[in-house]
Amino acid sequence: MPRSNRPRRQAAGGRSAARGKRAASGADDAGSGLERARFGIDELQEAPDGAWHVRRISPTNAAKTYTCPGCRHQIAPGVEHVVAWRADAWFGEDRAAAERRHWHAHCWRTRSHRYL
């Protein structure tokens, strides 16, 4: 069946139906972009045990259970934490990223700086 050239019907409040769906889902929310920028960027940290890439994981993006290497306790889904991997790995960036570990934020900040 051919597409209609008629304009779409306006939703309540003067917005188009497609715009209303996007706004209802929160896609246009300014906070979602801010949260993505705040949590999705790697930070390079220098420490006595080398250079590390560190990325914060927001509670909404924490979907699995992980074991923190600092305290050996579980990081439950929905808990904010950090992911860390070596920036100065001998075997390349790909291998370092494959060996990344999920840490509680407190455990990462207070870790002893010896190679784990």
Automatic annotation (TrEMBL):
It comes from Arthrobacter ginkgonis. The lineage of its organism: Bacteria, Bacillati, Actinomycetota, Actinomycetes, Micrococcales. Residues 10-33 have a biased composition (Low complexity). Residues 1-34 are annotated as: Disordered. It comes from the Bacteria. This is ATP/GTP-binding protein.
